[in-house]
Design a protein that fits this description.
By secondary structure, this protein is mainly alpha-helical. The protein has helices spanning 2-30, 32-35, 38-43, 45-54, 56-73, 77-88, 90-123, 125-138, 140-149, 154-162, 168-178, 180-190, 199-202, 205-226. It has one domain. It is built from 14 helices and no strands. The longest helix is centred in the middle third of the chain and has 34 residues, at 90-123. The chain is elongated and about 55 Å long.
Length: 231
């Protein structure tokens, strides 16, 4: 049994490493990284929007697949979501990036649960007990709070959730609902990338207020629980 778990874990590790190498190689040698810089987007803003309008569904499908592939192995959530807002606008951008992020996280969740859970639990059982206990006590609301906070990388939350007994359906809806505020902020910011000249422009007062409201929203369940308010 242990031999099977070990072999399965090595296989998963090799697949992940090879996947990372492949993605980095693709970005480096294909020049994709150049096309995702702020300078390029601003210089080609009009041309990109014309291309998207002429090849709307083709561009949307390619962006959707790329988003899923990249966030499954790399922490590209912020730049990709900004790009989604830049290319497609607020409402299409939110829908595309949010659904793609959910699909990518579900793939990570399922991979960990069915290929590596036994090994990880056996190796880090003591470290996982605290999270597992909080999940049992808080249930979906605890996971939803983690998603709303948006301070933990997707892949970390995906892995931790996969190691608990939480149903896939619960993981999916808490992820989707919990990430709506963050994607709304990022996509809205992305729609203004053509006029951004520095990090100061991105972190405008409106955006900072939006992030503050996001933090308050995420902390609401904790605050209500502190004052014994049932939700």
């Amino acid at each position: 049994m242990l031999r099977k778990i070990w072999k399965g874990s090595i296989t998963l590790f090799v697949i992940v490493v090879l996947g990372l190498i492949a993605v980095f190689a693709l970005i480096k040698f294909s020049g994709i990284g150049h096309y995702m810089t702020l300078e390029y987007l601003q210089a080609k803003s009009e041309m990109l929007h014309v291309y998207v309008s002429q090849h709307y569904f083709k561009t949307m499908i390619l962006f959707f697949i790329s988003y899923i592939a990249l966030i499954t192995v790399l922490p590209f959530v912020v730049p990709l979501t900004l790009l989604g807002g830049f290319l497609f606008g607020i409402f299409p951008g939110i829908l595309i990036t949010l659904v793609a992020a959910t699909v990518g996280s579900v793939l990570t969740f399922l991979t960990v649960r069915y290929l590596a859970a036994s090994f990880i639990k056996g190796r880090y059982q003591a470290e996982l007990e605290s999270f597992d206990q909080k999940m049992k006590e808080g249930g979906p609301s605890y996971l939803l709070t983690l998603q709303l906070l948006s301070v933990i990388p997707y892949i970390v939350t995906d892995i931790l959730a996969a190691l608990t007994d939480i149903p896939l359906k619960t993981f999916m809806w808490t992820f989707f609902v919990g990430n709506i505020p963050l994607h709304l902020i990022l996509v809205f910011t992305g729609t203004n990338l053509a006029t951004v000249h520095s990090m100061h422009d991105i972190l405008s007062p409106k955006i900072m207020i939006a992030f503050a409201l996001l933090a308050l929203l995420a902390l609401a369940p904790i605050i209500l629980k502190r004052f014994n308010v049932k939700i």
